[in-house]
From TrEMBL:
Keywords, comma-separated and alphabetical: Lipoyl
GO biological process, one term: protein lipoylation
GO cellular component, one term: cytosol
The keyword tRNA processing is assigned to this record: no
Protein name: Glycine cleavage system H protein
Residues bearing PTM N6-lipoyllysine: K63
Taxonomic classification: Bacteria, Bacillati, Bacillota, Clostridia, Lachnospirales
Function: The glycine cleavage system catalyzes the degradation of glycine. The H protein shuttles the methylamine group of glycine from the P protein to the T protein.
Length: 124
């Protein structure tokens, strides 16, 4: 399974794509595969502030419901409302189906996240 090299990852199977002082976040293809068919994604409201480690979403699938921790501190500037109508987008392309975009309070937090190679090595 290929993990995009331009993203950062967490051991909790969250990917982060940084663009300046903002970042889009979603769950990895590995997480999507483990969850099975995604049925619902609980999207946070815009302007919600999170600290690294807080639960930022819940993903309900055919197998389970998983709380997902956010790896960065920031404020939600957008939620992917396409997931309201088509949560299966996460199964189809986990890296296009971002869940939230946040304005980073501390961009340096991203430096502590995993590279694609390190994430993949941790799965073995």
């Amino acid at each position: 399974m290929a993990y995009p090299a331009d993203l950062k990852y967490t051991k909790e199977h969250v990917w982060v794509k940084v663009d300046g002082n903002k970042a889009k976040l979603g769950i990895t293809s590995y997480a999507a595969e483990q969850l099975g068919d995604v049925l619902f994604v609980d999207l946070p409201e815009e302007d919600t502030e999170f600290s690294a480690g807080d639960k930022f979403t819940e993903v309900e699938s055919s197998k389970t419901t998983s709380e997902v921790p956010i790896p960065v501190t920031g404020k939600v500037v957008a939620a992917n409302e396409d997931l309201d109508d088509s949560p299966e987008g996460i199964n189809e392309d986990a890296y296009a189906a971002w869940i939230v975009e946040v304005e980073l309070s501390n961009p340096a937090e991203v430096d502590g996240l995993l590279s694609a190679a390190d994430y993949e090595a941790g799965l073995e």
